[in-house]
Specification:
- This protein is mainly beta.
- The protein is built from no helices and 26 strands.
- The strands form five sheets. The protein has a ten-stranded mixed beta sheet, with no helix packed on it. A six-stranded parallel beta sheet has the order 3-6-9-12-15-18, with no helix packed on it.
- It is globular, with a radius of gyration of 18 Å.
- It starts with 6 loop residues before the first strand and ends with a strand.
């Protein structure tokens, strides 16, 4: 029998065929479905659901009550606040079941993005690297790298540093984080780190 290199609370359910990386911790009443892939050193809080074929990178934090359904891909260092939820069917109907992969829309959350508590991510969108989604927001379209979005529907309200602090661009399209001193440039309404 293969030795587990992750830890799961006794009330957690890990289906046969799920892959879980070394150092990952899974807390009370969580369910990891068959064929889900979870990287190393992740933390899954209480009552988390990870659906079939969901892919989660390394060092991802899923707070209590997060639900990830088939079609979701989270890269390394993603943070999902309590009760944030992902969808995978754009137009569900109970009387017309759409519960097969042909109906699922992929959702991609890139490295370092943060999603606030109670946010909903509508399927088919991409959240850019180090993007920041405010609590309670409903994301219905793609979010740029380093963008700060919030509201229902979520709209871009600013820019965020990799360290999680808001940054302000000057009239030359340059910004320096007051907390960690990382520097950014903005061109064509896109931000990227330069130092």
């Amino acid at each position: 029998m293969k030795e587990k290199k992750y830890w799961a609370h006794g009330t957690a359910v890990v289906d046969e065929g799920a892959e879980i990386g070394e150092g990952t911790k899974i807390w009370h009443f969580s369910h990891i479905a068959q064929d889900a892939k979870i990287g190393k050193n992740c933390k899954l809080g209480q009552n988390v659901y990870v659906g079939p074929n969901v892919v989660i990178g390394n060092n991802v934090k899923l707070q209590n009550n997060v639900s990830l359904y088939e079609g979701a891909v989270l890269e390394d260092d993603v943070f999902c606040g309590p009760s944030s939820v992902f969808t995978n069917i754009f137009n569900p109907r109970s009387a017309f079941p759409r519960n097969s992969a042909e109906f699922f829309r992929k959702t991609h959350v890139k490295k370092g993005a943060s999603i606030g508590a109670n946010a909903t991510i509508v399927c088919g969108v991409t959240l850019g690297r180090h993007a920041f989604v405010g609590a309670g927001s409903v994301v219905t379209k793609d979010v740029k790298d380093h963008a700060l979005v919030y509201g229902n529907p979520a709209r871009q309200m600013g820019w965020m540093c990799e360290c999680g602090e808001k940054i302000e661009f000057d009239d030359k399209g340059r910004a320096k984080c007051k907390t960690c001193s990382k520097e950014y440039k903005k061109a064509h309404d896109a931000a990227e780190r330069i130092k």
